[in-house]
Amino acid sequence: MDREEQDMLPLSHEKVEVDGVYINEAGREEHLHRGQHFPADPVLGKSEWKLTEFMFDNHHEGRTDERLVPKENDTDKIGKVTHPRRNFQRKDL
Distance of CA 85 to CAs 50, 60, 80, 81, 88, Å? Predict the structure, then answer.
């Protein structure tokens, strides 16, 4: 038996432990935060909730840092890796 099948899902009126998007048995999605209580479904009443997506509050905007982007006109390429298969020249040979 798979470990995921053995875990019990949280029920309505229990406390939320992780911020995220949850879905219940009827397919209703809710954005819930830590400390809130799982709501009851208007049709089913008490239902199980499953975490489908974590909610992260990042400070960045999802762009790569400018310092990590290679520049075309960079004159100081000594010591920088320009290609993943670049061979380093050994001086002791």
Answer: 45, 31, 13, 9, 9
